[in-house]
Specification:
single chain, mainly beta, 13-stranded mixed sheet, 8-stranded antiparallel sheet, 5 helices, 8% helix, globular, disordered C terminus
C-alpha cells in the first residue's frame, strides 16, 4: 500500500514501485521514451526547428471536432498517482473517460471542467488535497487510482472547434493490493429540478465500497437563501429514512450561516484541504443576472462506508419571505465516485441513472410543457456493450446524448470508488427500464433533433 495512502508519513518508506509518466512527449510511458519526437513529426516542429530533437517538439495533442483521443493505455498492474491537464476550448464539450481492466464502459465519464471543479466554464482556483486548479487553467487530480491489468484514458471533443490538450499522467507500476478498490466518477445534470422532489446524487449502487466526495455547482434563481436542503445517505437497505442526514447544504460543505462574511454581509469564498466554496459568480447586469456557486466536500478522513448498497440525495430548499421553507427548482449537475464490488450504473452510464436526461451539446432552442427553454441537437449513434455479473452481454440501442444547456444550472459532482468493474444484473434491469423511459420521453416531448 506504500504510496496509495494520502499521508506524508509514507514518503520516507522505500518500496519496489516503478515510476512512469505519460505525456505528449512520451505517449507510451516507456523507460527512456521521452522527448524523442523528431522535427517534422511533432506538433511544434516549426517552433523547435532551429533547436532540434529534444527541445519541446511535441508538447501537446490536438483533438479535432468529434474526435476521441487515447491519452494513455497502460497494460500492467499499477496506480495512477497524479494527472495534470490544461485544455483549450469549451471544457463542457471535452469528455474525460477512464476504463479499468478492459471494462467495455468507463468508470469515469465526465466533462473535464466539471471533473476538476470548474463547472461554470470559468477558472476557479481550488487548493484541496484531492483536486487543485491553478492559474491559468492547470487542472490537477491527486485521487489514487489503482488498477490490475489495464488503465485506458480517453478524451472526446464534442465541440465544433479543435482543442489543444496539454497533459501529464504520472503513475506507478506495482502489484495492486487485493482489497484496493477502483476509482469512479459520475456526472449528472437536471434543469430544472422538479418541484418538491429531492435531487438524486447517486443511486443503484450495490456491493461494498466507500463514498469519498462531492462537487456541487448550483445556480440560484431566487433572491433569498437557497441552501437549506439536507444531504442524505441511505446505507445498506435504508428505504424511507437515511442512516446519515445532514442539517443544511452549507453545513455539509464545511461552512455555516449562508457562507456569509459577517463583516461585509456578502458570500465569502474559501478553499481548504477537505471542503470549499471556491467560486461565487455574482450578477453583473445584462445577461449574467443570476448568482452561481461552486462547492466541494472530500470525505478523505471520513469516507462513507457501505457494504450492500448506497443512495445519496439532496434537497433543493430555500427560504420564503415569511421565514418558512421554500422548495426550489434550480438546475442541478452531479457526479459521484466510490469504491465497491459491483459497478453501479450511475458511475458507468452517467446521468441516465436516476434522471433520464443525459448531457450533450448545442442545438435548436425549443420549449417543453413547463415552458423551460431547452437546447437539444442531433446526436451521433453510439452503441455500447455492457456485461452483467452473470456474464451475459447486451448490445444496447444508441445512447442518446442530449444536454439541457440553460445558463441557470446547478451542477453536482461526487467522487467514490468501486472495487470491481462489472455491472450487476439489477443494474441491467434499471438501465433497461430507463432506456425505455428515455425513448418514450424522446417521442412525447419532441425536444430531440
Amino acid at each position: 500500500m506504500i504510496g496509495m495512502e494520502l499521508q506524508n508519513g509514507s514518503l520516507c518508506m522505500l518500496s519496489d514501485e516503478t515510476s512512469r509518466s505519460i505525456s505528449p512527449e512520451n505517449l507510451t510511458g516507456e523507460k527512456g521514451g521521452g522527448a524523442r519526437a523528431k522535427i517534422g513529426e511533432g506538433i511544434a516542429s516549426d517552433k523547435a526547428a532551429k533547436l532540434g530533437e529534444g527541445w519541446k517538439v511535441n508538447p501537446f495533442v490536438r483533438a479535432e471536432p468529434g474526435q476521441t483521443l487515447v491519452l494513455a493505455d497502460i497494460r500492467e498492474s499499477g496506480c495512477i498517482r497524479q494527472m495534470w491537464f490544461t485544455p483549450t476550448g469549451d471544457w463542457r464539450s471535452l469528455i474525460l473517460r477512464i476504463y479499468w481492466d478492459n471494462s467495455p464502459v468507463p468508470s469515469v465519464e465526465c466533462p473535464i471542467g466539471d471533473f476538476f471543479g470548474c463547472g461554470w466554464g470559468k477558472f476557479c482556483q481550488i487548493s484541496s488535497l484531492a483536486v487543485c486548479v491553478n492559474p491559468g487553467s492547470g487542472f490537477n487530480c491527486y485521487w489514487p487510482m489503482p488498477f490490475r491489468s489495464r488503465a485506458l484514458i480517453t478524451i472526446e471533443n464534442r465541440d465544433d472547434y479543435p482543442s489543444n490538450i496539454y497533459y501529464q499522467i504520472n503513475y506507478s507500476i506495482m502489484e495492486t493490493p487485493e482489497n484496493a478498490a477502483y476509482f469512479h466518477a459520475q456526472f449528472r445534470r437536471v434543469n430544472p429540478q422538479p418541484y418538491k422532489e429531492v435531487y438524486t446524487i447517486a443511486d443503484g449502487i450495490t456491493g461494498k465500497g466507500h463514498y469519498v466526495g462531492t462537487a456541487l455547482f448550483w445556480g440560484a434563481n431566487t433572491n433569498l437563501w437557497w441552501g437549506e436542503g439536507e444531504i442524505k445517505f441511505y446505507l445498506d437497505g435504508d428505504t424511507e429514512y437515511p442512516t446519515i442526514c445532514g442539517t443544511g447544504t452549507e453545513d455539509y460543505f464545511g461552512g455555516s450561516y449562508d457562507f456569509m462574511n459577517r463583516e461585509t454581509h456578502e458570500y465569502q469564498e474559501f478553499t481548504t484541504p477537505y471542503s470549499g466554496l471556491p467560486q461565487v459568480i455574482r450578477p453583473r447586469g445584462g445577461y449574467e443576472s443570476q448568482q452561481r456557486f461552486s462547492m466541494y466536500r472530500w470525505h478523505i478522513t471520513d469516507p462513507i462506508h457501505f457494504k450492500e448498497d448506497l443512495r445519496v440525495t439532496i434537497q433543493a430548499l430555500g427560504w420564503r419571505t415569511d421565514r418558512g421553507y421554500l422548495p426550489l427548482q434550480p438546475p442541478l449537475l452531479s457526479g459521484t465516485s466510490r469504491n465497491r464490488r459491483n459497478i453501479c450504473l450511475p458511475c458507468r452510464m452517467r446521468n441516465i441513472c436516476g434522471y433520464t436526461e443525459p448531457f450533450a451539446k448545442n442545438a435548436p432552442l425549443t420549449s417543453c410543457q413547463r415552458g423551460v427553454s431547452l437546447f437539444s441537437q442531433s446526436f451521433r449513434v453510439i452503441s455500447t456493450t455492457v456485461s452483467s455479473s452473470s456474464g451475459r452481454g447486451k448490445l444496447w440501442p444508441p445512447k442518446v446524448k442530449k444536454d439541457l444547456l440553460g445558463k441557470a444550472t446547478a451542477f453536482q459532482g461526487t467522487v467514490t470508488w468501486i472495487s470491481e468493474p462489472s455491472i450487476s444484473s439489477r443494474a441491467f434491469s434499471i438501465l433497461s427500464a430507463l432506456m425505455s423511459r428515455a425513448t418514450a420521453l424522446m417521442h412525447s416531448s419532441k425536444i430531440w433533433a
